[in-house]
Fold:
Amino acid sequence: MTMFKGAGRLSRRGFLGAGAGAAALAAGLRPAHAAGLTVGFIYVGPKDDFGYNQAHAEGAAAVKAMAGVTVIEEENVAETVDVQKSMESMIQFDGASLLFPTSFGYFDPHILALAPKHPDVRFQHAGGLWSAEKHPANVGSYFGYIGMGQYLNGVVAGHMSKTKKLGFVAAKPIPQVLMNINSFLLGARSVDPSITCQVIFTGEWSLAVKEAEATNALIDQGADVITAHVDGPKVTMETAAGRGAWVCGYHADQTALAPEKYLTGAEWNWPVVYTRMAQTMLDGGTIDNFVRGGLADDFIKMSPLGPAVTDAARAQFEATKAEIMKGGFAAIKGPLMSNTGAVVAAAGEAFEETDVRLESMDYLVEGVIGATS
Amino acid sequence: MTDAAASRALAAPSAEGALAALARRAEAVAIPLGALLAGVAAFSLFLALLGHSPAEFFALVWRGGFGTAFSWENTLSRAAPLLLAALCVALPARLGLVVIGGEGAIVLGGLAAGATAMVVGWAPGALGLPLMALAAMAVGGAWIGAVGWLRHHRGVNETIASLLMAYIAIALLNHLVEGPLRDPASLNKPSTPPLPDWLRIGEIPGVGVHWGLAFGALACVLAWVLIERTRWGFAARIAGGNVRAAQLQGLPVGALILGFTALAGAMAGLVGFFEVAAVHGAANGSLISGYGYAGILIAFLARHNPLAIIPVAVLVGGLEASGGLVQRRMDLPDATVLVLEGMVFVAILLGETLYGRFRMFRPELWGRA
Structure:
């Protein structure tokens, strides 16, 4: 960049030289917004995926509705040099000063490479990776304790299951996913300790064919409540409901995909979180570099309970939810073993939702059928 | 005969000869260019039918891809991996082989670079980086070389074999970075351990693009020299034209196939090396980004001419660089640029059938009625 001092002038001449320069067009090429706050959102997949990306896009839509804010979006941006250039393009062409590159893989090395070059731009990343010693001050990270949402899914699933077998379609055996699988089962076991949950890892975040195969395989083996942790749970929800199984959602509200079979779902509450952050910027404040929250902080929420949910399930769901809202709730508490026989928590030991030890989880708890590798 | 008449007699045919040579060369430029314009015209019609302004679209493509210094940086960054990826298709194509699984050699090349760095982390960059690059080229070369071997010795279709082997390569990458080669600290994004700073590749000063761009362009030039100016290239072109004739002439067809496919794989392996050493800083699932497949498009558009790969890769890089701006300003889906690429691709393939059909490009017919 340093080589081209007269970039602005160069560009205009180059553009007119292309012969396309009608005055009407030039108007359309000015930065989208001159004053106020321009916020850029970047998604790794389609923003209507009924999942991870849609949850963020719903947050973007809420920010768009704020006065004095312009929102720009790009979808299907790969975790390569592409995302670095998309971020920089939003800064250069649109004057974006707050960016939400939402995919987990955008952080290292992409956000970390770009942030020092643009100290006036704020980079906000979902995933909770920021640390003061290692990372630039204009980068922030935030995350929600969504395992609690899967715990609540499990409570409802535990009541609704006839076969006492649950099914979980998962992408990769990484801590965030393992936390959700374990929470789902432990929620169900809070209803009936004999319940088991089978997990199938597809190996990729978005692989529709394998997700459908996994869902069918789980139902073939007797699972009658299915949930998922992949980028877009759409295929899992539709396949499972089509086979007559109950479904619990993840990431976003999937009620529309299976109105009769949908029980509830663990959702991100990004509209609340993102409008809060944009408001801080509008007010001239600084967003904290490291933010986390759960149900009580409106970082996550539950889908409305479906029509089939029984009164008993609803009662325990509401009671557990109220318990979680109080704070300090521990899904992982002793005595608890892993499914390979190791001690996860000794009697009397409890891992609250905020416990950092949970972030390096590498086990499946007893009752989960499946392996981490 | 006077001197003047003699010189006229000599000059006339040479001027005509120059014109004839020009006409033959002009065909190779005019037909792809015409096809490009036809593709653009078809796409403009498509946009207009959807109620969007084609003029606004192309103005944005210009601005996003080529209009500013940053646009060029963006374009060249995207073109950098495509140069080498396209060579992986173009080199075997000169032998008549359609290899479409370069993606597999790219991810394994990246994996090899990341794994090598785990072993040579003690070495300074001047030693460690070449070792990583060699490992990436060796693994990539072996992967696509195996496709050539299967083709020559077992009669396995190279197109299918290379494509299916790409899936095996991806599974291998996922298995190794999530298992034996995983850095225990890479919790939620399984990766090999991060490269030390001295094993990272920086940017070309003043350009804002990593050195993979320069190496890619150099490789394209060298590949052109290999094909057009050496006896191996000549032999490969003969074998590509008619393999029986080449065998009758005693050309070592098997060695040519193995050599060219291995070289092609080595180029793809280098893509992986640069992605790891210049972009990602570790080998992980982000290596699976489709560069191998984009390379197919570019090689075909360049008609497998290594020199033509350079401008074509820049053109495609520019289109992709402008994709974001098009999404944001015109509210068009990200696939819009892919539709344009597809239409141009089809137009250029159709253009292939037009060679030799225009009288103006065929001087030998000019004199005839």
Summary: Chain B touches chain A through 49 residues (CB under 8 Å). Chain B has a mean pLDDT of 92. Residues 16-52+332-369 of chain B form one domain.
